[in-house]
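Team,

Forwarding the record for the chain on the shared tracking sheet. I've put the sequence and predicted structure together so nobody has to dig through attachments.
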Amino acid sequence: FHFALAKRENKTIELLNTYNQHKVITEFYKTLTETKSSILTKLNNLQAKGDASELEVGNLGQEINNMYTSLNISLKKIREISFIQIPNIDNTEELLEAIVEGGKFKVVAGPIFENEGFDKIMNYIENSIHSCQRVEQKNIGVILFLHKKLQN
């Protein structure tokens, strides 16, 4: 229905780009939540084991850090979309900065269980989850506004 209206108004590309932007934001949100869940599961598994060696703790820390920094790879998908303006977000860089402070996940150096790095990583992920959710809601508003504009 909306595609027919969009075609009639020569807005098909805008509608498709808006849908695609929402899909990419939603997929990144899912990646964030899955990463958080996976990190917590791995940590709980090691804690349940009881006596973990220093090597096991170090390996887990490195694995968690790798999972965390790989979120930057997922952010690249957001850079590749045809950006559609969202309230208070005027371009792709602002979109990235609205999701994660500075537009990318900062590397946390050193053994994360010894230097408060784990807490920093989890805070960055948690803050990004909340920010991404807000951005997603704004994007839904853009979609609904476009639908309404097409119907009038």
